[in-house]
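Table S2 (continued). Query chain:
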Amino acid sequence: MERKLFTALQGEHATKLNDSLSKQGFRRSQNVLYRPSCADCSACLSARIRVADFTPTKGQRRTVRRNADLERRARAPWASEDQYELFRHYLDTRHADGGMADMDVFEFAAMIEETPIKSRVIEYAERGRDQTPGDEATGPLRAVCLTDVLDDGLSMVYSFYDPDRTKTSLGTYMILDHIQIAREAGLPYVYLGYWVPGSPKMDYKSKFSALEIYRAGNWTPLHGNEDYSAELHPLSTDPIAEQVAGITLPDTVGPNTT
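Corresponding output:
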């Protein structure tokens, strides 16, 4: 039985609350902050990359080169038809049986636009045939990430991409580019959402160097050879979580699957 601890993100102190709780493993979904608080499992571990210590692998450097035809553009959090069309194609191809599969255009717009803090939509589009690097891209939209700007980093809230562009690893590329954005802005971290030990779908996050996970109340480096099996079925030691046993997110709050 899944259980979450959550709080409303609203009012004049919303930014400070988001900054503070993000550092304690919480994630944002529209105007709600939440973290898993299951009684018998702690497998969902919040993950972030230390930008200053990150070093790309050879494969990641190849990923950057393979996507050299894309131009990044940062926009205000406002949904567009192009974004929704790409979002639907991504879900129908990759997550047709997932929790977001039935989202319509209005729910998509709410996911993008309902944010009480500083957020940006980072789009990646192909340059036109006659364009050069740095030009405003006129080609097709290939990837999108809804990104929150925290006081200590960038939080990748939700991302999606063209599933037909299979050989360029767009998901990995967006993370690499966010590391570059954070580095240029002098921000120390890129928050990736949750990493789950042993989950094939989450394994890509462990491929990034300088990765930290929020474990037992502290951010600690992820060690590939360390045994994380204890996180799968430990006894609950979270007194706050025990007070909210049985609480689940309201239906209006969509899942965060970054």
